[in-house]
# Entry
Amino acid sequence: MKTQTILMPLDMHLHLRDTVMLENVAPLSAYSFSGAIIMPNLVPPVATLEDVKAYKERIMASVPNDYFEPYMTLFYKNYDKKFLESVADEISAIKLYPAGITTNSEGGVSSFDIEEMRKTLEAMSELEIPLCVHGETDGFVMDREAEFMSIYEMLAVNFPKLKIIMEHITTKEAVAMLDKYENLHATITVHHLLLTLDDVVGGMMMPHNFCKPIAKRPEDLDALLTVALEAHPKVMFGSDSAPHPQHAKESCGCAAGVFTAPIALQLLCEIFEQYDKLDNLQSFVSDNAQNIYGICPEFKEIVLEKRAFTIPEHYGSVVPMYAGQTINWAIESVE
Ligand code: NCD
Ligand code: ZN
# Structure
């Protein structure tokens, strides 16, 4: 039987939520990943040293073993250097959301005035704290990411020492930026390697495929596949697995977020095998992230096997992407 081994898989963009949802989803990521960059968009957001420490403790308390490292992030505000110095050892990045652009981002940045941000971004450069960005404007939904490219350029040029991660990229415009600016990197989700807008609203509306940024055009999907499959050194896997309870997804006013954490590695194997690129999967799901973030996770080995696996209809209150569908790869063992 065909197998694929992955060492220390990392999920460089993950939503774990809190309380009951945290207890439901954190063990699923801890099972198959060595670690994950934990998003700070709780209500209220993770914005103080105490918040970071307490949230990390709640995460550790909700996973069954200590083989999972939550790489913590702080919700971006125009922090001063003294505060950043005090928190630098506890965080792996700071996450910037434009205000109101996605789930729980109301406290985000409302103006990209470079002078207002300079103090914070210079301090982050000096302290080597990466800046993760949700790169969307409030324009027309299909154009939001492409319109954000001028903001990425402004950040990249003004803060050349700042490591900037373009989160969950969905467009050929974002892919093109990777080779243009040395300090721009990107995460790519598994759902954006599979879906276009047609899979969201092309037939019947599919709430479990709906997320921000929305899946785009076939040519965008092709551009994402190109850099993911070649494991371009500046891209890394970040699931953006974003659980919402079933009633919040299957409702009028569907919440944005696709839940993929427990099926991500299986789907990635399927995609990389389909294009005969399984040799590059290790770099895409771990090595590139280790290089970009300078992290060194504890040993963990996941063996996947090529056999039929039917995705569960539910993980607790959450419906995963492709619920009930059968895919070709399953997790065989975790050590
Ligand atoms: C995320 C969430 O639900 O927190 N939703 C999403 O559609 N991706 C937030 C985000 O990363 O945009
Ligand atoms: Zn996200």
Observations:
- The chain has one domain: 3-334.
